[in-house]
């Protein structure tokens, strides 16, 4: 038996004001598009803004369905729209913000496992890391330099 340790380094910011202006702008877009979430079942609205290398920002929000599994998270809505419309542009960063219609979320809400898996595919495709920034409705923001920091032992095309 040979143990090994997995470590990730994340950065925690007390508020969005501590981040660079371009990150603040990206997060403000995520907050804005959060209002477009269609979340009648969970009452949990998520907005995501993807920054492309060409300067475009592609936005997404969660879209739910009466057949629950048919719905889609904000992060995948955004990154798939980016891939569908700008297949040759690199994804530089994604900003995510979540708000519950039931209570105030003051802790950062990380992307779900399925979204991490979807996002890491683009890191592999473009051979470049994607920065992640995520927060709740207000309060602290967490930054990860790469999706892999949130998804160690990644399953990717090298496993096939
Ligand atoms: N949701 C997201 O949009 N992103 C995540 O990373 C976690 C969950 C959505 C899916 C569903 O519409 C609602 O939040 C509650 O799970």
From TrEMBL:
Enzyme class: hydrolase
EC number per UniProt: 3.5.4.5
Domain of life per record: Bacteria
Needed co-factor(s): Zn(2+)
Record field: catalytic activity: cytidine + H2O + H(+) = uridine + NH4(+); 2'-deoxycytidine + H2O + H(+) = 2'-deoxyuridine + NH4(+)
GO molecular function, one term: cytidine deaminase activity
Signal sequence annotation: none
Domain (CMP/dCMP-type deaminase): residue spans on this chain: 21-149
InterPro entries membership: APOBEC/CMP_deaminase_Zn-bd, CMP_dCMP_dom, Cyt/Deoxycyt_deaminase, Cyt_deam_tetra, Cytidine_deaminase-like
Keyword line: Hydrolase, Metal-binding, Zinc
Family membership noted in the UniProt record: Belongs to the cytidine and deoxycytidylate deaminase family.
Biological role stated in the UniProt entry: This enzyme scavenges exogenous and endogenous cytidine and 2'-deoxycytidine for UMP synthesis.
The protein's name: Cytidine deaminase
UniProt source species: Christiangramia antarctica
Gene coding for it: cdd
